[in-house]
Design a protein that fits this description.
By secondary structure, the protein is mostly helical. It has helices at residues 2-26, 31-82, 96-108. It starts with a helix and ends with a helix.
């Protein structure tokens, strides 16, 4: 996976940076070490930006998949609800109008 590769490259670059910082403490005026240090800092920044972009893309993809799963679940639940058939009438309510409804329900069942 691209993210794992970037993570590994970043880890190595940071370790190399730490080694150079240690060397710079013994010879702070060494121009070659300073140049290497700046190059590594640029490399670390670049890798960090790439990593950030990959993570953002993965988050977008995950969000889309979650939305699709929610739509699929809702559609499945709606289909299941639409397929339910009444096999008995609902319990009677206390109003006279509900008795009319129950009577018509009994005729259908």
């Amino acid at each position: 996976m691209e993210l794992q590769n970037l993570d590994q490259q970043l880890k190595v670059a940071i370790q190399n940076h730490q080694v150079l910082v240690t060397k710079m403490k013994t010879d702070p005026q060494n121009g070659a070490l300073q140049k290497q240090l700046h190059e590594l800092q640029s490399q670390i920044k670049g890798l960090s930006e790439k990593q950030k972009q990959v993570v953002q893309q993965l988050r977008k993809e995950l969000e889309i998949k979650q939305q699709q799963a929610a739509v699929t679940t809702a559609t499945t639940n709606q289909s299941a609800t639409n397929n339910v058939t009444l096999t008995s009438c609902p319990p009677a309510l206390t109003s006279p109008i509900s008795e009319i409804g129950r009577a018509s329900c009994r005729e259908r069942v």
